[in-house]
Automatic annotation (TrEMBL):
It catalyses: tRNA(Arg) + L-arginine + ATP = L-arginyl-tRNA(Arg) + AMP + diphosphate. InterPro entries: Arg-tRNA-ligase, Arg-tRNA-synth_N, Arg-tRNA-synth_N_sf, ArgRS_core, DALR_anticod-bd, Rossmann-like_a/b/a_fold, tRNAsynth_Ia_anticodon-bd. One of its GO terms (biological process) is arginyl-tRNA aminoacylation. This is Arginine--tRNA ligase. Its EC number is 6.1.1.19. GO terms for molecular function: arginine-tRNA ligase activity; ATP binding. The gene is argS.
Length: 565
């Protein structure tokens, strides 16, 4: 039973189909102040349709709508405020959570459709950047959220493992490389070689040709070039895997740019057949004048393909291989133009599914207001950042709870959770200021705050020896005021999930669990749950419900919930 949907249906009947029930549902709000009811329907948008004052419409509707789930209906200005039948709602919500547990709040509108998610996608032989961290964290949360809505997520790591830079790297390695050094510290060493190559090339331009030559060999399948490339790739992946493991992120596919090498002739052929390829400055391009976009470069004058060509091949491959309902690309907003061009080219080529492709951009990670860059030696090693966060969390635990059993395990969950939550709590388009102190705070809108609230609620249940079986069938008490605030928050979970899914916006879940944690902490400060009383077992059922939803909310963001911390 979904009470918002219930109200939407009743309103739909009362409006005799004047507004689609889906639109009605979208308009229904949760009043900020509970004195104004549990659900509110603003009548402004109906005023135009009905050519009537919105407050009159609200009045009329209030007389028409009836349901056993409503306690009363009030009109305040243009708003129709609905007070729900608290007993019915409370019992329904708590019983659902007790029986459904982690499944509570789920939707099935995804209908099992595949959603490919291009995420993380770092460039091999280069440090894993903050942008890649953001893509990993946002992509992983979106995967969990779409899954909760009935889709099947397919996480693809579109590794940057092809391009002329690998020719340069091979050339640099052959000139100055040391196998042992690379093995000991692959990314750092390969990056140093790459930087040295560029520095030397400034005085020795012949190096550029040598680099291009090696890339040509690589593309032509030369054995030495290929095995060096393979080695660089393997070593880089080993390093990336450590970060993925720290963050508990797994991929369904590591098909990166190189994977599409043998699939690009077909792209070029398709574009030729559709007469979309034109020559411009000796290169082959697709003009996008009508779309008001710059031309998309497909093939360079020397026949080399480009990033965009590989993405075209990847898009087609994904459609053919996964028959996606949606194809998502979680990539920083600097690449917005690239994705616009990509979708436009596919549209022009007549692929109807191109409008199922969505670029999900995000803002930058800043340090002291400036972009955190990985170039010119100013490397921010992500693994170091994560480890530092874990160390700080470990230190906090030592201070607050020195007797905790698994301190290292919990420090990892808290330290990593803090970084993830900090990333996800704001609308993804915002730039974020990177601050470990801020992330690890136990108060305010932080991961540790939500985790701590979960651990606290769990400890109440432990102390009381509460078991789900001992939940009373009828939990609601007419005296429940503070409790009602918690219950009405619990009721909102599924709407938050739906909003997060529809807008590819994990911050909806992050904000929701912070709100729930706040409401719960306030409740717990006011009501002595552990005190013996007739209501105790009902109250514990409520506390249990809160733990289930906080844990599931954190899980949807890719964050673990330690029982104790
Ligand atoms: N490797 C690219 C970069 O680091 C991101 C790739 C994004 N995915 C894609 N299909 N283009 O900038």
């Amino acid at each position: 039973m979904n009470f918002k949907k219930g109200l939407a249906e009743v309103l739909y009947q009362a409006l005799e189909g004047e507004l689609a029930s889906q639109n009605i549902e979208q308009l229904i709000e949760k009043p900020k102040n509970q004195d104004h009811g549990d659900l509110a329907f603003p009548c402004f948008s109906l005023a135009k349709l009905k050519r009537k004052a919105p407050n009159l419409i609200a009045q009329e509707l209030s007389e028409k709508i009836q349901s056993p789930t409503f306690e009363k209906v009030e009109v305040v200005g243009a708003y129709l405020n609905v007070f729900l039948n608290k007993k019915l709602v409370a019992e329904h919500i708590i019983n659902s959570i007790i029986t459904e547990k982690g499944k509570y709040g789920a939707h099935d509108f995804g209908q099992g459709g595949n959603v490919t998610i291009d995420m993380s996608s770092p460039n091999i032989a280069k440090p894993f950047s903050m942008g890649h961290l953001r893509s990993t964290v946002i992509g992983n949360a979106i995967a969990l959220i779409v899954e909760k809505c009935g889709y099947k997520p397919i996480k693809i790591n579109h590794l940057g493992d092809w391009g002329t830079q690998f020719g340069k790297l091979i050339s640099a390695y052959k000139r100055w490389g040391d196998e042992e050094k690379v093995k000991a510290n692959p990314i750092k060493e390969l990056l140093a070689l790459y930087i040295k190559f560029h520095a030397e090339a400034e005085t020795n331009p012949a190096l550029e040709d040598e680099g291009r030559g090696w890339f040509k060999k690589l593309e032509d399948g030369d054995q030495e070039a290929h095995s060096l490339w393979q080695w660089f790739r393997d070593e880089s992946l080993k390093e990336f895997s450590r970060i993925y493991q720290l963050m508990n992120v797994e991929f369904d596919s590591y098909a990166g740019e190189a994977f599409y090498n043998d699939k690009m002739d077909r792209v070029v052929q398709i574009l030729e057949e559709k007469q979309l390829l034109v020559e411009s400055d000796q290169a082959q391009v697709v003009e996008l004048t009508e779309e008001e976009l710059p031309p998309c470069l497909i093939k360079k004058s020397d026949g080399a393909t480009l990033y965009a060509t590989r993405d075209l091949a990847a898009a087609i491959y994904r459609k053919e291989n996964y028959d996606f309902a949606q194809s998502l690309y979680v990539v920083g907003h600097e690449q917005s133009l690239h994705f616009k061009q990509l979708i436009a080219v596919l549209n022009k080529a007549g692929f109807e599914w191109a409008d199922k492709m969505v670029h999900i951009p995000f803002g930058m990670m800043l340090k002291d207001g400036k972009k955190m860059s990985t170039r010119k030696g100013k490397v921010v090693l992500l693994e170091e950042v994560l480890n530092e966060s874990i160390t700080m969390a470990r230190y906090n635990i030592e201070e607050k709870n020195p007797n905790l059993a698994d301190k290292d395990g919990v420090a990892k969950q808290v330290g990593v959770g803090a970084v993830i939550f900090h990333d996800l709590k704001n609308n993804r388009m915002n730039d974020i200021e990177f601050s470990l102190e801020e992330m690890l705070r136990f108060e305010g809108e932080t991961g540790p705050y939500v985790q701590y609230t979960f651990a606290r609620a769990s400890s109440i249940l432990r102390k009381a020896g509460w078991k789900a079986e001992s939940a009373p069938a009828s939990v609601y008490q007419t005296t429940w005021e503070n409790e009602w605030k918690v219950i009405s928050m619990l009721m909102e979970f599924s709407s938050a999930i739906k909003r997060a899914c529809e807008n590819y916006d994990p911050s909806q879940i992050a904000k929701y669990i912070v709100d729930l944690a706040q409401v719960f902490n306030k409740y717990y400060a006011e009501v002595k749950v552990l005190e013996q009383s007739e209501e105790q077992s009902a109250r514990l059922a409520l506390v249990y419900s809160v733990t289930v939803v906080l844990k599931e909310g954190l899980r949807l963001l890719g964050i673990e919930a330690p029982e104790e911390m």
